[in-house]
Write a structure and sequence with these properties.
Oligomer: homodimer
Largest interface: A-B, 19 and 19 residues
Strand content of chain A: 5-15%
Order of helices and strands of chain A: HHHHHEEHEHEHEHEHEHEHEHHHHHEEH
Distance between the termini of chain A: 21 Å
CATH topology of the largest domain in chain A: Rossmann fold
Chain lengths: 387, 387
């Protein structure tokens, strides 16, 4: 699932690429069409002007106009050439938790970066907040995210200035895993000032989005994007948000989806903490450091790591992940550098695989290095047969 | 209930003054004796060496030694001469909510200051926190307390350095009502550096404590005192507290007593907010200003003030309170100065009565002044008969 497939895509895949161009993210009326008729039939009707229910004439005409301009084969091929893959509900990389969005589920996701989105998302936390944050907010976002990365968690954010950027940088700086969920095409880093950061995230982590290459962000796209951040992760931490901030939309989406919602407190005198405090008066849980976040979002295995073993047999792993696993010593920890060297791959690829293996229970972080979990060491190696 | 009675005290009163010298505050074994045998019988047994159950020989001997030294008549007379009155469960000024403490209920309270403790306590909130607070903590304590005072609420605290002092000063500075609950004799301001502040509180508000005149504070007396602060008030606000801080004892006591527990958030990086954040992760409610505190502790009348009228007929008021009520104009607000002048009394006395009348629903604060509530104006004046 790393390199975009060389073969021609599945017919449903191409129809979903087409629908990505035609439908706005989060359109629940269109989501209902997809649920009731399937992507191929919805695409056929849009092309053939066979009216679907629940939209005005004007809206239908708008969709038809977009449909007339869409070039799905070109979109798919140019994305593939740019190292961008298209992940949709029947592909193995699709994160099943996005199905919790119901009719607001994305039609598909465009993905830049090596790791498996599905596996990374299993152990991920969103860290989001104000663009115009204070130094305190930036400090907290970076520290929390570095701490999450050190505990083997993937940090998901929106790539924006302020808290989002500090969260991504905190994770990257700790040699960790991070995912940027954009409200525009993944080939078009936004904001422009974060071009370098987003490029770096695509190398060491993942840059994803619902909108096809070339699409611009709009205010409503930012808000709608937030539901993907909320649904993808086990919980959302809000670090600074004013009243009526977009981050509160993410927090409320997380609450509705049954995800953990957390807030970092700040001075009661700070307008940029007012929105967080509003959440903390409701369902959200106050967190002050990464350990508290992990205590909340971690499963039992997190609190008692010795009780959990790998959940996937070793030889169901992809070859690249198996090579990284084989590069870890039987005892003690190894640096990413040593692991990359032993697995004959790059450090970024090694980090990508190590966080996948962490999600699957084979390895854990140990300071700056990585080591096998006790189960990965002691489990009988009877897994060379497929089971 | 203002001036200490000139007549000789009730026999139970003198026995309770005696027991105040002999028993340590918060002694639940002794509290059980009092509940089962009454104060007079417990005092008789202590004097006659008729052993009571639940204490070691050594502890009994200690109580007997204290009993031998106690001089209740002298205590009562010297307190009276110093303007200190003794309030105990059968006196009209006893705040009934202290009975919620069960066997840890104070034997009695020593009170300095003009207002009625019982009436003031009806609309009171505790604001407590760290002695070594930050500037942020002092600012929040003072601002919250000024805001509570402006809304007609009485601010209760412990008279200590830091948050407590800022809370008292905030209330005093807003021309408001404040009560200091000491862990030593009320004639012996502690800490010494707060002698001026505590003297001012005794003039404009109330200084109270369980320990008889001359007694010193000890670490355990501070902790035990906190239950009185918690029980007396409708809720406790914690402004800055480190982990394992004494203020958390007050907060937990408030929770056990079913009072509202509130915390002011601070930066997650501040050790002096760590204890508050611990509370906020539990049952405590996050508050950032006085309006939020009042929203929580206020009764329905607070949210919809027009719905509530005075709860006591006008001519059951004390003469001093009636004179203050009569000095308020039928329309609009008057300053404390004008009210004091009209009632032919001092400003401190006028403030004391105005907060009593506020607790009873006759008046409300209006900016810096005071005015009659709508009910006090429109209610038919048919209350000249006793009902």
């Amino acid at each position: 699932m790393t390199a975009p497939e060389a073969a021609a895509p599945d017919p449903e895949c191409l129809e979903r690429v087409f629908l990505c161009r035609v439908l706005e993210p989060g359109d629940v009326v269109a989501g209902r069409w997809l649920r009731e008729h399937g992507a191929e039939e919805v695409a056929r009707r849009l092309r053939a002007d066979l009216r679907l229910p629940g939209v005005t004439d004007r809206r239908w005409a708008g969709l038809r106009a977009r449909a007339a301009r869409a070039e799905p084969v070109r979109d798919w091929e140019s994305a593939r050439a740019a190292g961008v893959r298209f992940v949709w509900p029947r592909t193995p990389e699709w994160p099943a938790q996005l199905d919790d969005l119901g009719d607001a589920r994305p039609v598909g996701l465009w993905v830049r970066g090596t790791p498996s989105l599905r596996v990374w998302a299993l152990r991920s936390v969103a860290v989001v907040g104000a663009r115009a944050c204070t130094e305190y907010g930036a400090h907290m976002a970076a520290t929390l995210s570095a701490g999450l990365a050190e505990r083997g968690w993937v940090v998901v954010s929106g790539g924006a200035y302020g808290v989002d950027g500090a969260a991504h940088r905190g994770a990257l700086g700790a040699g960790g895993a991070t995912v940027a969920v954009l409200a525009c095409g993944v080939d078009r880093p936004y904001p422009r000032g974060h071009t370098g950061l987003i490029t770096r995230i695509a190398e060491q982590g993942l840059v994803i989005g619902e909108l096809p290459p070339g699409e611009h962000p709009t205010p409503s796209r930012f808000l709608v994007r937030n539901r993907v951040i909320a649904a993808l992760t086990r919980g959302t931490v809000i670090v600074e948000a004013a009243h009526r901030s977009g981050s509160l939309v993410t927090a409320r989406a997380a609450q509705r989806l049954g995800r953990h919602t957390m807030g970092v407190p700040g001075p009661a005198t700070s307008g940029l903490s007012a929105g967080v405090h509003e959440l903390l008066r409701g369902e959200a849980v106050l967190v002050g450091d990464a350990a508290e976040v992990v205590e909340l979002v971690g499963d039992m295995g997190e609190l008692a790591p010795d009780r959990r073993g790998p959940v996937v047999p070793r030889d169901l792993l992809e070859p690249a992940a198996r090579r990284v696993l084989a590069a870890l010593p039987g005892q003690g920890a190894a640096s990413v550098d040593d692991v990359a060297c032993g697995a004959r791959t790059t450090e970024d690829e090694a980090v990508a695989r190590l966080y996948e293996l962490r999600s699957l229970g084979f390895v854990e972080r140990h300071g700056d290095g990585w080591k096998l979990t006790r189960q990965a060491v002691t489990a009988p190696r009877q897994d060379h047969r497929r089971c």
